[in-house]
Amino acid sequence: MITAVHTLIYSDDAHATRAFLRDVLGWKYVDHEASGPGWLIFKTGPSELGVHPTSAGAGLQHQITLMCDDVDATMRDLEAKGAEFTGPPED
């Protein structure tokens, strides 16, 4: 039985992306030293996986949906840690 999913995020600035997940979102992680210094593997808790079609030649794409119990309080907490939102939350 499959008990977990490993998800990849592609980033032009992997160090900054890892810092955001670690420092702003506060996700727990392990340092995967075999892959090099600063290579963090994050524990994401209960997760979901969706597969959506893309057109040929569209390139790599990703979307991350963060789920919480109180979106307003969570957004305030993340903004206090430096997160910026480009629009309102979507339901």
Quick structural gist:
It contains 2 helices and 2 strands; from the N terminus they run αββα. It has 91 residues and is an alpha+beta fold.
How far apart lie the N and C ends?
32 Å
Helical content (DSSP H or I, runs of 4+): 10-25%
Largest sheet: 2 strands, antiparallel
Strand content: 5-15%
User: Can you count the beta strands?
Assistant: 2
Helix-and-strand structural type: alpha+beta
Low-confidence stretches: none
Task: Estimate the global geometry from the Cα principal axes.
Answer: globular
User: Order of strands across the biggest sheet?
Assistant: 1-2
User: How many distinct folded domains?
Assistant: 1
Give the rounded overall mean pLDDT. Answer: 81
Order of helices and strands: HEEH
The number of helical elements comes to 2
Gyration radius over CA = 15 Å
Structure description:
The chain is an alpha+beta fold. The protein has one domain (1-47, 59-82). 23% of the residues lie in helices and 7% in strands. The chain has 2 helices and 2 strands. It has helices at 14-24, 71-80; strands at residues 29-31, 40-42. The chain has a two-stranded antiparallel ribbon with strand order 1-2. The protein is globular and about 35 Å long. The termini are far apart. The model has no long low-confidence stretch (mean pLDDT 81).
